[in-house]
Amino acid sequence: MILTVTLNTALDITYRVRSLRPHASHRVSEVVERPGGKGVNVARVLAALGHEVTLTGFAGGPTGEVLREALASTPGPVVDALLPVSGATRRTIAVVDELTGDTTQLNEPGPQITPAEWGTFLDRYDALVPGASAVALCGSLPPGVPVGAYANLVRTARSAGVPVLLDTSGEPLRRGVAARPDIIKPNADELAELTGSHEPLRATQDARRRGAGAVVASLGAQGLLALTPEGRWRAVPPAPEYGNPTGAGDSAVAGLLSGLLDQLPWPDRLIRAVALSAATVRSPAAGDFDRAAYEKLLAQVSVTTAI
Amino acid sequence: MILTVTLNTALDITYRVRSLRPHASHRVSEVVERPGGKGVNVARVLAALGHEVTLTGFAGGPTGEVLREALASTPGPVVDALLPVSGATRRTIAVVDELTGDTTQLNEPGPQITPAEWGTFLDRYDALVPGASAVALCGSLPPGVPVGAYANLVRTARSAGVPVLLDTSGEPLRRGVAARPDIIKPNADELAELTGSHEPLRATQDARRRGAGAVVASLGAQGLLALTPEGRWRAVPPAPEYGNPTGAGDSAVAGLLSGLLDQLPWPDRLIRAVALSAATVRSPAAGDFDRAAYEKLLAQVSVTTAI
Fold first, then answer.
1. CA A123 distance to own-chain centroid
2. What positions does the domain Carbohydrate kinase PfkB occupy (chains A, B) (predicted)?
3. Which one is catalytic: B167, B250, B288, B290?
4. Which is nearest to A13 in space by CA: B213, B233, B150, B11?
5. Is residue A56 part of a domain?
6. Which structural domain range is residue A77 located in?
7. What's the rounded Cα separation, in Å, for the pair B248 and B72?
8. What pLDDT, in 10s, does the model give residues B266-307?
9. What is the pLDDT of residue A285?
10. Is B95 within the bounds of a domain?
11. What is the pLDDT at residue A34?
12. Is the pLDDT reported for residue A124 higher than 80?
C-alpha cells in the first residue's frame, strides 16, 4: 500500500465563464466539482496505475463531506483514511476564460486545525506508516499545523524504513528537506525559493546538499531534472504538450512512486513520470491522464545524463 | 405574514484577495458565507423591521443545507418554507479586491428543477398565498422552471386578493408584467430591457402600460422613480452613499412592502424604501442595513412629484 498524505485537501471547483473581467458580474456556464489537493491527485493516478493506495489527511464541514462522497465513487482502490476535523475543507476555484483559455485561480486557506486534531493525525499516521511500502507527503499546510510538520512526518517514515517523497513549498519544504526525505519534487519556482538559485542544475545540487536523497525538479515543458544517488538525468517529453497543466506535477510524483514500487532503475522511473505528466496535461482534469497518450509517450520520452 | 419567494436561492460567498488579476493564482485571505438570493435578502430586512416573514422557494444539496442552517440562526421571525430539491443550491462568489475595493461577481446558474419539483412548489405556493398579507417574487429562475413562472405566481396571488410585488429581469419580467402584478421594481437596466427606452420616466410609463399597477424604478444614487395609481414621485436620498450597493434594491423592495403593510401613503412608502436602500449601502452585507443611518435618513429623503 502507498500512503499519500494531504493535510490541506480541497474541493476543486472549476467555473467556465465567457471572459473574466475584474469588477464585472459573470454568469458561470459550467460548474465542475472534484476532490482535490496534491496528495488526492497522486492517489487517483496511482490507483489508475493499479497500485493500492491509502489517503490520509483532514476533511471537514459540508465541503469535506462532498469530497469524501466523491472519493468513495472514484474508480480504483483508494482507501479513505481522512480524519474528520471541526473546520471546513477549503474550496479552490479555477475560473476558465472561454475566450482566452486562461485560468484564474482562487484558493481558500483551509480549515483551522486544532492542536488536538493535529495530535490525533500524528497517531493515525504513526499507525499507517509501518504498513506502507512508500509515503508521499503533498501540498500546503492548513492553518494551525506546525510549519515543521513535514520534517516530523519524514522522520517517522525514515525510522520505519519506509521510502518517503516530499512535495511542498516554502518553509515547510525547507524544514522538511533537513529531515532527509528520500525524494523531493520541487518545480522551478519552489526550487529557486529553497536554494536562492534560478539555475536548475546548481539549485538541484544545492537541494541535495540540504538533505534530500534525490531531487527531481519538474521544469514544465523541459521535463524533469533528477539528481539521485545512482546518477543524474534529464527526462524530456517528445514535444511540448498543450492543455491543462494542473496536476501534471502530481502525476510526476505518482510516476516516481509507481516506478520505485516496481523497482525500476531511475531512468525508467523518470520516463514513467514524464509520460504520466504529459498525459495529464492532455486530460481536462488534475488527477486524470489520457491513458492512450501515456502508453505511447512511454516509448517517446528521452533520458540523457545531465551534465 | 409576508411571503417572499426565492426560486433561485444562493449561498453567497465573499472572498477577499489582495488584487484580482486574470490568469494569476490568488490566496483568499477571508471567506464569508451567507444565505442569499434577492427574496432571502428581502425577508431578512422585513424581519429586522419587525414583520412576520415566510420564505419559500427551492434549496438542495450540501450548499442548500448550509443555507438553511444559516437561515435558522438568523435573528428575526423568518419561517423557512423552502422546498428540498435534488439539485444543489447555487453559489455566488463575490471577489473583493483589497487594493481597489472593486468586487468581481461569479454566479452559478442554479440547480436543474424537475417538472415534479416545480409542481410540488406550485402546490406549496397555493397553500401559502391565502395566509399572506403580501407576496414578493424575487430574482432569477433556476434551470427547468418555465419562463412564464412568475406570470403564473402573480395570477395566483391576484386571484386570492393578495398584493404581489415582482422583482426580476428579462423574459420572466416581461411575462410577469403582463399578468398585472401590483408593483414591479426594476433597476435602470431591467427597465430599459423591458421597454427598449433608456429614458426613465418614459420607460416607467411604458412598463405601467404593459400591466404593472405601480412601477418603482431604482436608479442608484438618483433614488426611486415611482408611477402609481395615486400619483408619480421621485424619492431621493440626501447624498450619494458610498459602500457596498449589493442588496440595496432588495432593501427597497422590503421598504415598499413594509410601507404597504403599514398602510402608509405612497410618498411615505418611498421614503422608507430609499432610507433602507441607502442604509444598506452603508452596511457591509446584502440583507443587512445600518439601523442608526436608516432612522436618520427617514427624515432626510426628499419626495417630489415627478414631471
1. 23
2. 12-287
3. B250
4. B11
5. yes
6. 2-7+37-89+110-305
7. 23
8. 999 999 999 999 999 888 777 789 999 999 999 999 999 988
9. 73
10. no
11. 92
12. yes
